Amino acid sequence: MGMITCDNCGAQYDEEADKCPYCGSDNFGKVVQEHEDIINGLNREKEHLEQLPQKAAKKGKSLVTKLLIGLIVLVIVVAAYEGISAIVNRKVSYHAKAAPQPEDGDDVSGGGLCRNPSLHGEEEPDVYQRL
Fold this sequence. Notes:
Blueprint: E1 3-5, E2 12-14, H1 28-59, H2 63-98
Antiparallel strand pairs: 1-2
């Protein structure tokens, strides 16, 4: 341990003491050193905290975040598909209900516009017949 001289009274005392044991004057050397240590510690902590956003930006999204985004997209796609299916099914069922149903004795051939002769008792032409 070293000894220092008090700036106030000139007495010699231990450099680790907070105050002069004779006059009570502060040991400015020790106080300044403590404050410098505190300031240096705060500067190191500040530098560390400034680097955290850069490390997080380099790291990218975590696996959990990616899975949650994928799940949300999947739910949206399934909901859109179900919504479109419901609309299409509703239109198909509406058209099926709105179409007039043939009654007994009605000509269901479509007024002669049917292209299938076998439905009308006619013979089908032999398209593979040799000339």
